[in-house]
Write a structure and sequence with these properties.
The structure holds 2 protein chains of 2 kinds. By secondary structure, chain A is of the alpha/beta class. Chain A has one domain (about 20-240): Spore Coat Polysaccharide Biosynthesis Protein SpsA, Chain A (Alpha-Beta Complex), CATH 3.90.550.10. Chain A has helices spanning about 35-40, 60-65, 80-90, 110-120, 165-175, 185-195, 220-240, and strands at about 20-25, 50-55, 70-75, 95-100, 105, 125-135, 155, 165, 200-210, 215. In chain A, strands 1, 2, 3, 4, 5, 6, 7, 8 and 9 form a 9-stranded mixed beta sheet that branches. In chain A, strand 2 (about 50-55), helix 2 (about 60-65) and strand 3 form a beta-alpha-beta unit. The termini of chain A are far apart. By secondary structure, chain B is of the alpha+beta class. Helices cover about 30% and strands about 25% of the residues of chain B. Chain B has helices spanning about 40-50, 55-65, 70-85, 125-130, and strands at about 5-10, 15-20, 20-25, 35, 90-95, 120-125, 135. The termini of chain B are far apart. The chains are: A alpha/beta, B alpha+beta. Chains A and B meet through strand 7, helix 6, strand 10 and helix 7 of A and strand 2, strand 3, helix 4 and strand 7 of B. Strand 10 (about 215) of chain A pairs antiparallel with strand 7 (about 135) of chain B, so a sheet runs across the interface.
């Protein structure tokens, strides 16, 4: 594990004209990687207002590592599951914009800066995404079923880690559906599209996603089951013309 | 031994599930997803059970009342759309007797009228999302705290 920063960076570009951004990191037992994720935020050109670490009951050093970083607020998770962890974070966020990061991924230094600037310049967009590149964690084998081609080229990042959204978007389309043990992000993105919100997709790599031996993939039948369920909901919304599930 | 032509689902990149009578199919190569209802579900179910095209059509016309040439024509178009969308491939297997009765194909009550032709509805609005393999951390005990039960299967 590399060293934890102890002082504020010198080149923080916060100003009264910069909207406040809350970063949400949900985690359980992420001690192996969380310092790298938080450091990537700390090294961002634009600093967030706060970093909410929603901890789902870690029994490793996750919390003690996270507490050493500036602007981190540890929020023990009250409810259960990944979707509710996101929802708790959104409910507690103070920023006008909300961004997300996984404990095992890394932001590029310009991520927040670029996405905030894009959303401020184009108020018709409610959220921004960017490209994501995958990298194989040192010493890890490629997980079974993982698409090797993702390690070669960056792809449009329809994932939480690439998302920066205006707070109001969550009021419009709602939070994450707790009936999805996984795949809640796909369901949420489908709902935003069906509600007429298209993303501002920035054509540059903003997130580096770590591939390691605890990842699972679309070829996992449980994920497929839930993804198919999310797709059917989207089909039904399209047929009925109702943007929001009843 | 004689052989017969059947159709095989192009797994693992094609995954599907019947949800409340509607078949939802994902193509993880193209990022398209599909809906199939009514008589199309019957044909897909027969296809999955290893029926040949002739056997599927015989079962279909056995179950459904309607204009037979029309039913066959629309069914052939449906099968072609499955092939064109790379959802299934043709394969040859040893000829064996078809042991499936029409009422066993779907495992649920069937309408007796050919009320709606089999149609493959294609959706392409989430290609980038489906082509980006979403990676989720799943610890052995579930994450962050295992839900007391899985979503309804």
């Amino acid at each position: 594990m590399s060293s934890v920063p102890l002082a504020e960076p010198a080149s923080v570009s916060e100003s009264e004209n910069t909207p406040a951004v809350s970063v949400i990191l949900i985690v359980r037992n992420g001690a192996d990687f969380i310092a790298d994720a938080l450091r990537s935020i700390y090294l961002s050109d634009l600093q967030p207002l706060e970093i909410l670490v929603i901890d789902g009951g870690s029994d490793d050093a996750t919390v003690s590592i996270a507490q050493q970083f500036p602007k981190v607020r540890i929020c023990p998770q009250i409810s259960h599951g990944i979707p509710n962890a996101y929802n708790e974070g959104i409910a507690q966020a103070q920023g006008d914009f909300i961004a997300f990061i996984s404990h095992d991924d890394e932001w590029m230094p310009h991520k927040l800066d670029r996405q905030l600037a894009a959303l401020q310049a184009h108020p018709q967009f409610a959220y921004s995404l960017g490209l994501v590149e995958h990298f194989l964690h040192s010493g890890s084998a490629v997980p079974e079923g993982f698409r090797q081609e993702l390690l070669v080229a960056a792809r449009p990042g329809w994932i939480m880690e690439a998302l920066v959204a205006r707070r109001e978007l969550f009021m419009s389309v709602g939070g994450f559906d707790a009936s999805f043990a996984v795949g809640e992000d796909s369901d949420w993105f489908a709902r935003t599209l069906d509600a007429g919100f298209t993303p501002m997709m920035l054509p540059e790599v903003l997130v580096r996603k770590r591939v390691h031996d605890r990842n699972s993939s679309l070829l996992n039948p449980d994920i497929n089951h839930l993804l198919l369920r999310a797709l059917r909901r989207s089909i039904q919304r399209k047929r009925t013309g109702k943007a929001i599930d009843e | 031994m004689e052989q017969k032509g059947i159709f095989k689902v192009n797994s693992p990149y094609i995954v599907s599930e019947l949800i409340d009578g509607e078949l939802v199919i994902m193509n993880l190569k193209s990022g398209n997803y599909y809906s199939v209802r009514d008589t199309g579900v019957f044909l897909w179910s027969a296809l999955e059970k290893g029926c040949s095209q002739d056997e599927m059509l015989a079962l279909l016309t056995d179950v459904y009342n309607g204009d037979i040439p029309s039913m066959i024509g629309q069914s052939l178009l449906f099968i072609k759309s499955l092939l064109d969308n790379d959802l299934v491939s043709q394969a040859m297997v040893a000829q064996g007797p078809n042991t499936w009765a029409a009422d066993q194909i779907m495992g649920q009550p069937l309408l007796d009228k050919f009320t709606s032709p089999p149609v493959l509805e294609v959706f392409s609005d989430m290609q980038d999302l489906l082509l980006l393999d979403p990676i989720h951390d799943i610890a052995e005990q579930g994450w962050p705290v295992a839900k007391p039960s899985r979503p309804a299967e």
